[in-house]
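Good day; I would like, with your permission, to put a structural problem before you. A protein sequence and the structure tokens that stand for its backbone fold form the material at issue. The record follows directly beneath this note:
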Amino acid sequence: MDEQIVKFRVGVMVTASLLIAAILIVMFSGPSGLLGGKYTIYAEADEAPGVAASTPIHKSGILIGRVAKVKLLDEGGVLMTLRIDDDKRLRHNEICEISGTLLGDAELRFIRDIDPAAPKTLIKPGETVKAVVRDDPVEVISQLQDGLNRTIGSVSKTSEDMGTVIRQISNLLEQNETRINSILTQMDESLGIMKDAVSNTNDIVGDPELRDKLKQTIEEMPEVLKRTQETAEEMKKAFQAVERNLNNIEDFTEPLGRHGPQLVDRIDGAVQNLEQLSSEMVKFSRAINSEEGSLGQFVHNPDLYQNLNKAARNIQDVSTQLRPIVRDARIFSDKIARHPGVIVRDAIRPGPGTKHGSRLSLGDPPAGAVEPPCPRPLFNPMFR
């Protein structure tokens, strides 16, 4: 082969390789990396897992720059140098997040803060912002896997328990099939009874006269409630009166409680005296009812009563005969007290008819003299 042809082919390959490299550089760095400038800001974070030089920086899903340098601070933490395209501006209401991908690569993203009061001023070149680390998707998936494993185990255990419960229910249904059928039959009958009851209720409610009465009853309910309330008030007053009476009774019974032993002793003595008196009364009544004693003879012997009655009459006759004598003696004593000389003169010069004359001279009984009453019978005729 001719040497010139070989050189031409090598030159074509080199040129094509350079063109492909330029295209790749433009594709990966973007047009700003070749045609535009960049400005630098700094992001500080407690940690930066997976972040290194050339780590991409995105905003709203668009590549706006790359990490130029990662520095470990002496006081702790990480300081990252960010190179941002000049035509891509960042604001203070945007948060820098460090997140990882499923493949293990890291990236920085600027997302908008949810706080509406966050300032919207532009971040100036050379300014330092705060970066936060977002949860690693791999760790999240790992945690989800652990939770999923526990959930699967719980579901498996639950399914086993449900299988056990279902088997128990199946056995219960098989053992109580007759009773269940009986219960269903009774339920069917109950539903029929309820249907009849509802039908009867509809018939009752459908009666116009009954509806009018129900309406009237409902209209009278406020008055009934008012009367009930008045009755409740009266009962309350009555209870208050009862409470006052109970308090008064308590005031009365409190001294009784204090003097209870003395009162009991006195009552006991009174009961003993009453018992003794009743025994004496029993003895007295027995003596009266007995014919052997004096009282019994007086009550049961009519001859004794007649003799006593006759003696009383004789005493009455004697008292009747003694009445003039007593009256004359009273008049005589009165005359002696008033005219003792006349009595002495008549005694010295007695004459005929002295007794009669003296009696006449005595005169009528003095004014104010009271005739002695006729004595009453000494015995009551009820003893005859």
Notes: The beta strands are 38-45, 56-59, 62-72, 78-85, 94-100, 106-112, 128-133. The chain has a mean pLDDT of 77. The two ends are 194 Å apart (CA to CA).
